[in-house]
Amino acid sequence: MVPRARNTLARNALPIVIAGGGIGGLACALALAQRGFRTIVCEQAFEFGQVGVGLQVAPNALSVLDALGVGDRVKSEGLLIERMVMNDGIDGQTVCDIPCGADFIRRFGNPYAVAHRADVHGALLQGCMALASFIELRTNSRVVGYANDGASVRVQLQDGEILQAAGLVGADGVRSRVRQQLVGDGEPSPAGAVIYRALVPAARMPRECQHPFPTLWVGPRAHAIYYPVRDWSEFNFAITVHAPPDDTWEGETDAQKPRAALDGWSHEVTQLVDIQPRFQRYVIRHRAPIDNWTEGAVTLLGDAAHPMVQYIAQGAAQALEDAICLAEEVDRADGDMPAAFLAYQAVRIVRSARVQISSLMLDRLYHVSGVERLVRNSIFEGRQAADYYDRLAWLFTAPDYVQRALADRTQPDALRRLG
Ligand SMILES: Cc1cc2nc3c(=O)[nH]c(=O)nc-3n(C[C@H](O)[C@H](O)[C@H](O)COP(=O)(O)OP(=O)(O)OC[C@H]3O[C@@H](n4cnc5c(N)ncnc54)[C@H](O)[C@@H]3O)c2cc1C
Questions:
Q1: What is the mean pLDDT of the chain?
Q2: In DSSP terms, which residues pair with 87 in a beta bridge?
């Protein structure tokens, strides 16, 4: 066991270890540091980074990023969208059009942004690096197990090192090792769909697809989405296609298979596949909600706790909300991790499960055919912006703990705590 340097300003003698330096893990470290708790973030990769390209950053996610002090950076690097549009892939008609301008921002306290994943992750990483006396960032550090003695925890790394910690937060993603030990529910199940993802340079993007917002196309057994990232220099393009659960091949592929899934669809979207982007194919995996993800001084966060299909574009947002909530409870319990982790779970479990379930329900909404498709389209006819906002309020409104963290940021106390 390697003795670690003590930060005498920190409220915890033993560090809190966070397994995983993704969006959830870094946000958790930052939120805890802002409340005076020191952490060690153990990331298995050789460097901190993100797989994948575009990320939709809903207002509830932006409110967390604001509370963490990095919201302005994400908003300045991302694109604040003017609307969200869903089109019918078969007849090309717009089914649903939600304005995201001034009224939307007034209602939810933030705009809706699209960003490059690396920019959101990079903003959090910068935030963590600026608080180096509270946050130790380690790469090439794979957590392989833990021994929980109730009040503290011994965290084992792959290289044999053991970290004595006040608590362990498993923010190690959809295939979480910490979850494997804590919950033991095996591999996440294939959700019955695969996703083909590509980055298309703006110069190759057909002019009629160059909208300043995400354009979603829905149709039988598939949906497609594209939106600009990084100053419009590139477009994130993804096609999700139903697939049998045993079709688990992943890797780089050409446009042939996704093109076949969109056969007979509107030219606006098929022309984009016809420019032959190189796609990465991934299997979409998920888990059903569970009623416990905490054991003594060990808990889970983000995809490790509540992985979901991406249809609602909220997985990262939910990981961010987890982070704020967990830090508030650790603060409230004054470092009593088992008590704090149980309180955090009690607050978060219903909301995160609702998002998991809602996301899965969109599978039906997006992918219906025949008369069900016509019913789907008729449901949205004539719907006004205010009506959409009312229906989305449960999701996009910052929960109380995020509101409190936002209010706390403006208190001089919060700044003093960090010295
Ligand atoms: C196609 C697709 C599109 C999506 N679009 C959106 C979107 O638009 N908006 C949105 O909000 N969400 C979206 N999501 C969901 C979002 O990507 C995830 O919910 C989010 O990244 C989860 O963050 P996390 O930190 O919990 O996990 P991850 O991002 O998976 O990070 C986990 C980290 O832990 C590390 N790790 C793993 N095991 C170990 C270990 N044993 N020890 C140490 N480190 C370990 C990994 O290397 C990784 O860095 C999408 C997901 C997919 C698949």
A1: 93
A2: 94, 217
Q: How far is the CA of 304 from the centre of ligand 1 (A)?
A: 9
Closest atom of ligand 1 relative to the 303 alpha carbon: 26
- Provide the residue ranges of all domains of the chain, joining segments of one domain with +: 16-187+294-417, 189-284
Which CATH number among 3.30.9.30, 3.50.50.60, 2.60.220.30, 3.40.50.970 corresponds to the domain 189-284? 3.30.9.30
- Residue 81 tokens read as 């969208």
Mean pLDDT across 61-81: 96
State which of 74, 158, 303, 314 you would mutate to test the pocket of ligand 1, scoring each by most atoms of that ligand within 8 A of its C-beta.
Answer: 303
Which residues sit opposite 80 in a β-bridge? Answer: 113
Closest C-alpha among 137, 135, 136, 131 to residue 419: 131
Locate the ligand 1 atom nearest the alpha carbon of residue 56 and give its number: 8
Ligand 1 mean position, distance from CA 220 (Å) = 28
Backbone angles phi, psi at 19, to 5 degrees: -85, 115
Ligand 1 lining (C-beta closer than 6 Å): 19-25, 42-45, 55-56, 61, 142-143, 171-173, 177, 195, 302-304, 310, 313-317, 319
**Which contiguous run of DSSP H or E holds residue 85?**
strand 83-88
What's the CATH number for 16-187+294-417? 3.50.50.60
**Percent of the chain scored above 70 by pLDDT?**
95
Distance 213 CA to ligand 1 centre (A): 23
pLDDT digits over 197-238, tens only?
999 999 999 988 999 899 999 999 999 999 998 788 899 999
Contact 299, 340 (CB under 8 A): no
Residues 43, 55: Cα–Cα separation, whole Å: 21
Of 330, 339, 337, residue with least CA distance to 35: 330
Q: What angle do CA 23, 107, 355 make, to 5 degrees?
A: 45
Distance in Å, CA 25 to ligand 1 centroid: 9
Give the number of other CB atoms < 10 A from CB of residue 26.
34
DSSP 12-72: -SSPEEEE--SHHHHHHHHHHHHTT--EEEE-SSSS---SSSEEEE-HHHHHHHHHTT-HH
Kindly give the distance from the C-alpha atom of residue 390 to the centroid of ligand 1, in angstroms, as a whole number. Answer: 29
How many residues in total does the chain contain?
419
Q: What is the pTM of this model?
A: 0.95
